[in-house]
Amino acid sequence: MIAAVKRELLVRHLEAWAPAALHRGRRVTYAHGFADADGGESAEAAARVLVEQTDFVRGRELSMLLVGEQTDAVRDRLAAVVGDAALTVFAVSGGTDARLAVALKAAGAQRVPLLGFLDSSAGEPPAPATVAALAAGKPAEFLLVLPPGTAVEPYRAGWPLCASVELATGDEPGELLLFGTTSGKSLEGFKEALWAVDEFAGVRYRDPGDPDRHLIDISLSPHPGPLRRELLAHLARVGSATVTELRTFTLTSTIYRAADATRVLHTLVDSGAVTRQPPTGRLGGDVVIGVGD
């Protein structure tokens, strides 16, 4: 079931990313690492989304780069999906860590819109340098899935905006999904996709920053409890912050959306758990929120 959640999230993000990237750049590259780890299922799902975009490719180049231990079978599987669509598929075998950076250069993916998807949950996590190689795109972003218990901090280096979520089925640690981007708008889009995926039986989210490790049902209106705790803990550390700063903290340091922060702040103010300056009026971005008495 976790595989289904990851695949739907990839599809939803690609559906938003691909048309925007094609509008921005003459050449666009999607890189799919560990392409053979699941028999090519996620690569096929991605290819179907990209093929749907080829009607809008006139005058542009849309490429899909497959990298893995042995990608021949995946390339053959995708051939029937791609057909005569204007999608160029490059397949490179020899391992994602060993080949991705070189393959990106060979495919001309520097300084063009670039999205990388690397699902390493079935084996060893990639080297941080492998993920960093995706920053050659402009703009660039990545979706990375790591085995349970893997530290995400090394993969954040060089990426101005990141967010992570744990995909869990119980109390034990779950797979970690990390998203990195150079665009605040894209981070907002990822968060919207995160909560819009279909709820699969037994799969829930956990915010890596929640000390209570609360499991959250996948919903367009997620349970606010963990966010409430994280906002109060953040305010206890910093003393006070504007609504805009707290929305940014929520977007970049929790699994929630900026809009979720606004809703939770309203309840915290109404209950007296936090103070606000000025004490009345609309809860605008410049209102300062402080810890309660």
From TrEMBL:
Origin, by domain of life? Bacteria
What is the protein's given name?
A: Uncharacterized protein
Q: Which organism is it from?
A: Paractinoplanes tereljensis
